[in-house]
């Protein structure tokens, strides 16, 4: 054995034998690496197929990394790939001797009978590379865990980030011709047309809203805002119940204002029609008790996950959601509400803090590829106007909420004197003021305050007619 670049290499470097000691060091396949390099030397066109699967860093043996980098450099220069050109390029880079010389390149060609299965060999290389990255991530996690100077929250976040980065590298997307994308879109539209289905995202259970938005879309940040008493929590719970119970979606709700017990009482109230006050004091009639027992059974069979951590930070939220998503594959995340979250302590003011929170919620939606629905408070500016109709500029404490959100909706009581109707059921407007990928408009709803439940109002016109 000889030592080469901190790697034990057999003296017979031109053979494809793999020793037990090499296999125990880290996962790799010398045969697959040699086969891929030989395939490209035989048929340079294979570089473009294989290059969509692996990169130089996926090769375990250093000389193979240098040879692949030489391939890439030649392609960038518009030159052909063969033994002579690769030898010249390696020589220019001062790596020819370390790569085994031109004789090693010839040996790669002689050992590779055909370039037909290059992609299969590349997949083997990618698998071994992924396993090595997992080992590296495990080592990083060990070092982080042993570093007691770091906060535990930071250690957990960095550890999970290390694992997610391995997963992201594994899921490499190919550059696609438009014809392939058009084929996918055609198939999707065909299915929707045949099923007469307008909802392609997560249904909210409100017909006009789902028709306007097509459901809540993956990776979107959706903000529903309003002044206190407008029923923001009731709306979020109505969406939660509809998505989880009617459509069997997996939904996580993070409540910073109410306890899990209070949320569940409201969900039971929504489901049974029993006044939430009666549920709080336990004074159920003989007719209501069976409804309560049935609701407990039905809700217990859903995939609803509740967390009532007060003043949760974006870091804590992301950590918990990642864990839930890995185990249960979440369909939607709900946060009640945004301004109660704790931002980065290093920010100079509240505006920057809220900006950081909204940005992190959007990143979470993109990272897990699920819609994130959050409530937000409006500033008092809306109360100074005679019509009291909310505007995007009323979003409290940060203009970044409007910027980061894909959809912004306002809950508005159209009654001329909302104070007189406080605590009463009544008509509500859901104003879709921003819709990044679709139309805006107004939705008519009814708020049943004693049940904290929103329902569809009788539709007066087709939602498509709204501006």
UniProtKB/TrEMBL annotation:
<keyword id="KW-0067">ATP-binding</keyword>
<dbReference type="Pfam" id="PF00772">
    <property type="entry name" value="DnaB"/>
</dbReference>
<dbReference type="Pfam" id="PF03796">
    <property type="entry name" value="DnaB_C"/>
</dbReference>
<dbReference type="GO" id="GO:0043139">
    <property type="term" value="F:5'-3' DNA helicase activity"/>
</dbReference>
<dbReference type="InterPro" id="IPR007694">
    <property type="entry name" value="DNA_helicase_DnaB-like_C"/>
</dbReference>
<keyword id="KW-0235">DNA replication</keyword>
<protein>
    <recommendedName>
        <fullName>Replicative DNA helicase</fullName>
        <ecNumber>5.6.2.3</ecNumber>
    </recommendedName>
</protein>
<comment type="function">
    <text>The main replicative DNA helicase, it participates in initiation and elongation during chromosome replication. Travels ahead of the DNA replisome, separating dsDNA into templates for DNA synthesis. A processive ATP-dependent 5'-3' DNA helicase it has DNA-dependent ATPase activity.</text>
</comment>
<dbReference type="GO" id="GO:1990077">
    <property type="term" value="C:primosome complex"/>
</dbReference>
<keyword id="KW-0378">Hydrolase</keyword>
<feature type="domain" description="SF4 helicase">
    <location>
        <begin position="195"/>
        <end position="461"/>
    </location>
</feature>
<keyword id="KW-0347">Helicase</keyword>
<dbReference type="GO" id="GO:0016887">
    <property type="term" value="F:ATP hydrolysis activity"/>
</dbReference>
<dbReference type="InterPro" id="IPR027417">
    <property type="entry name" value="P-loop_NTPase"/>
</dbReference>
<comment type="similarity">
    <text>Belongs to the helicase family. DnaB subfamily.</text>
</comment>
<keyword id="KW-0639">Primosome</keyword>
<dbReference type="GO" id="GO:0003677">
    <property type="term" value="F:DNA binding"/>
</dbReference>
<dbReference type="InterPro" id="IPR016136">
    <property type="entry name" value="DNA_helicase_N/primase_C"/>
</dbReference>
<keyword id="KW-0413">Isomerase</keyword>
<dbReference type="GO" id="GO:0005524">
    <property type="term" value="F:ATP binding"/>
</dbReference>
<dbReference type="InterPro" id="IPR036185">
    <property type="entry name" value="DNA_heli_DnaB-like_N_sf"/>
</dbReference>
<dbReference type="GO" id="GO:0006269">
    <property type="term" value="P:DNA replication, synthesis of primer"/>
</dbReference>
<keyword id="KW-0238">DNA-binding</keyword>
<dbReference type="InterPro" id="IPR007693">
    <property type="entry name" value="DNA_helicase_DnaB-like_N"/>
</dbReference>
<keyword id="KW-0547">Nucleotide-binding</keyword>
<dbReference type="GO" id="GO:0005829">
    <property type="term" value="C:cytosol"/>
</dbReference>
<dbReference type="InterPro" id="IPR007692">
    <property type="entry name" value="DNA_helicase_DnaB"/>
</dbReference>
């Amino acid at each position: 054995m000889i030592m080469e670049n901190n790697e034990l290499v057999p003296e017979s470097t031109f053979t494809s034998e793999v020793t037990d000691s090499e296999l125990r060091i880290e996962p790799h396949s010398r045969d697959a690496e040699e086969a891929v390099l030989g395939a490209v030397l035989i048929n340079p066109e294979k570089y473009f197929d294989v290059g969509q699967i692996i990169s130089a860093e996926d090769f375990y043996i250093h000389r193979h990394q240098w040879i692949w980098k030489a391939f890439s450099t030649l392609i960038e220069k518009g030159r052909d790939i063969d033994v002579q050109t690769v030898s010249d390029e390696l020589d220019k880079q001062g790596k020819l001797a370390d790569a085994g010389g031109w004789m090693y390149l010839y040996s790669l060609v002689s050992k590779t009978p055909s370039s037909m299965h290059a992609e299969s060999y590349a997949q083997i290389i990618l698998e071994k590379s992924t396993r090595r990255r997992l080992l590296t991530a495990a080592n990083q996690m060990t070092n982080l865990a042993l570093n007691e100077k770091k906060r535990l929250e930071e250690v957990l976040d960095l550890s999970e980030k290390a694992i997610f980065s391995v997963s992201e590298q594994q899921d490499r997307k190919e550059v696609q011709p438009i014809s392939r994308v058009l084929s996918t879109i055609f198939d999707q539209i065909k299915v929707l047309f045949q099923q007469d289905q307008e909802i392609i995202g997560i249904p909210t259970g409100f017909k006009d809203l789902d028709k306007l938005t097509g459901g809540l879309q993956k990776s979107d940040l959706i903000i529903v805002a309003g002044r206190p008493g407008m029923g923001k929590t009731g709306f979020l719970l109505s969406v939660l119940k509809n998505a989880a119970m009617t459509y069997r979606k997996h939904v996580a709700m993070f409540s910073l204002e109410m306890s899990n017990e209070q949320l569940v009482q409201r969900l039971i109230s929504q489901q049974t029609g029993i006044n939430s006050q009666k549920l709080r004091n336990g004074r159920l009639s003989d007719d209501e008790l069976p409804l309560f027992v049935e609701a407990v059974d039905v809700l217990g069979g859903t995939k609803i996950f509740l967390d009532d951590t007060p003043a949760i930070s974006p870091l804590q939220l992301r950590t918990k959601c990642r864990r839930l998503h890995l185990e249960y594959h979440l369909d939607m995340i709900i946060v009640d509400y945004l301004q109660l979250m704790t931002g980065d302590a290093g920010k100079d003011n509240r505006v920057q803090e809220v900006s950081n929170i909204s940005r992190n919620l959007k990143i979470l939606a993109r990272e897990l590829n699920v819609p994130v629905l959050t409530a937000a408070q409006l500033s008092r500016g809306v109360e100074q106007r005679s019509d009291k109709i909310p505007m995007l500029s009323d979003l409290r404490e940060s203009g970044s909420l409007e910027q980061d959100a894909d959809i912004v909706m306002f809950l508005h009581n159209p009654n001329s004197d909302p104070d007189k109707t406080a605590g009463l059921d009544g008509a509500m407007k859901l104003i879709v003021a921003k819709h990044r990928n679709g139309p805006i408009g107004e939705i008519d709803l009814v708020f049943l305050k004693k049940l904290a439940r929103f329902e569809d109002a009788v539709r007066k016109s087709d939602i498509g007619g709204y501006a």
